[in-house]
Write a structure and sequence with these properties.
With 405 residues, this protein is mainly α. It has three domains: 210 residues, 3-Layer(aba) Sandwich (Rossmann fold), CATH 3.40.50.620; 61 residues, no CATH class; 87 residues, Tyrosyl-Transfer RNA Synthetase (Orthogonal Bundle), CATH 1.10.240. A three-stranded parallel beta sheet has the order 1-2-3. Strands 4-5 form a two-stranded parallel sheet. The chain is built from 18 helices and five strands. Bound molecules: tryptophan and iron/sulfur cluster.
Length: 405
């Protein structure tokens, strides 16, 4: 399916409250959320049920991190006036859709998701041979499809989950989007567009179906969006009819990858809690200084006079994120000629990290002082999210013929 035009798209993303956020989250996900919130209709949520799939033995972890995580989002610049912030478990429609999708997802699809086996091996100390854990990506699909989101900002490790979501949406639409008189109803809906628009729609549909003209789809969608006299159902039907299939009840989302979704940690590997190489989003400055001062460098630089090679040094990875070109040139020359010491080299990174964190820490402090404000933002977000999810579930129930009279 061709991507929907920007103004039609919704964005959704979630984060699991399993520990304090670190700079990897900031560079990897939060910065992109901040960027997207002004361009799209954004929904960001605390994935507490997803956290439970790995922390069912110590659920207190979730409550202990949840509010701090929301404060981290706000500190990072997520604007509750622009984006809807909510908690997954307060929108039970996610669970309902998860259950309904569980009826149609082949077991093999879930067993084949790479994170399923990977995580089981990585988190050996936990028993993840559970129904809930197998269903992790299915719950994620429900999160996304409940909002009929078009874009999902995620890290690279999540792309397989978005792919599963697309396949599920396709399967759902195939199974339940083809009501018997689909073509007739679509043709009747076209006539409701009025003569001129109907002719325009038909010609755009033709050039898409015969020549694969993506621009024509965009134009046709724009036409449908502004069409005055058709119902929501007819509109959806005509979106689906454009591409030849049935009615699109659940649109296929796309992953939106962040350029720096591989923020390096203190050891040069990707920054991640499981590697113990993180710097907290609003970690105490003294602790940040100490971590950076003691982080490993090119092992060839045993003594100050030994030259080094930036490409073999994790500090260099951080310079790539934080330093200007001038500073980077200074590092490359100084390192290879042993003109600078490693502590000298680290100083600009230390300064840059502290400068990045300062406003985050200040903004977080404001919210920490007013827990009621934060609770209020979430309460409002939950209501707004629920309204949207409820609408989708109404349609899903109808499509699955679960509405009895
Ligand atoms: N699985 C995601 C992660 O670990 C979190 C998540 C849950 C999510 N539901 C989602 C992300 C829906 C995007 C959309 O990062
Ligand atoms: Fe790494 Fe800088 Fe030391 Fe070179 S001078 S080894 S880049 S910390």
């Amino acid at each position: 399916m061709a991507p929907l035009p920007a103004h039609y798209q919704r964005v959704i993303s979630g984060m699991r409250p399993t520990g304090p956020l670190h700079l990897g989250h900031y560079h990897g996900v939060l910065k992109s959320w901040v960027q997207l919130q002004h361009e799209y209709e954004c929904f960001f949520f605390v994935a507490d049920w997803h956290a439970l799939t790995t922390h069912y033995e110590d659920p207190q972890v979730i409550g202990a991190n949840l509010w701090d995580m929301v404060i981290d989002w706000l500190a990072a610049g997520i604007d509750p006036g622009a984006a809807t912030l909510f908690i997954q478990s307060r929108v039970p429609e996610h669970a309902e859709l998860h259950l309904l999708l569980s009826m149609i997802v082949p077991l093999g699809w879930l067993e084949r998701v790479p994170t399923y086996r990977e995580q089981q091996t990585q988190l050996k100390e936990k028993d993840l041979a559970t129904y809930g854990f197998l269903g992790y990506p299915l719950l994620q699909s429900a999160d996304i499809l409940a909002y009929r989101a078009g874009l999902v900002p995620v890290g690279e490790d999540q792309v397989a989950h978005i792919e599963l979501t697309r396949e599920l949406a396709r399967r759902f639409n195939y199974l339940y989007g083809r009501d018997p008189g689909f073509e007739d109803k679509a043709e009747a809906a076209i006539r409701k567009l009025g003569k001129r628009n109907a002719r325009f729609y038909r010609s755009l549909r033709k050039s898409y179906q015969e020549q694969g003209d993506e621009e024509a789809v965009d134009k046709a969608r724009a036409l449908l969006e502004t069409a005055q006299n058709i119902s929501v159902g007819d509109r959806e039907r005509l979106y689906g009819y454009l591409e030849g299939g049935g009615k699109i009840i659940l649109p296929e989302p796309e992953a939106w990858l962040t350029p720096t979704s591989k923020m390096p940690g203190l050891d040069g590997q990707k920054m991640s809690k499981s590697y113990g190489n993180t710097i907290g989003l609003r970690e105490d400055p003294e602790s940040v200084r100490k971590k950076l001062r003691t982080m490993p460098t090119d092992p060839a630089r045993v003594r100050r006079i030994d030259p080094g090679e930036p490409e073999k040094c994790p500090v260099w990875q951080l310079h790539k994120i934080y330093s200007t070109e001038d500073t980077r040139r200074w590092v490359e020359e100084g390192c290879r000629s042993a003109g600078i010491g490693c502590l000298d080299c680290k100083q600009p990174v230390i300064d840059a990290v502290l400068a990045e964190q300062r406003p985050l820490r200040e903004k977080a402090a404001e919210y920490l002082d007013q827990p009621e404000t934060v609770r209020g933002i979430i309460a409002e977000g939950c209501d707004a999210a629920r309204d949207v999810a409820r609408e989708t579930l109404d349609e899903v129930r109808h499509a699955m013929q679960l509405v009895y009279r």
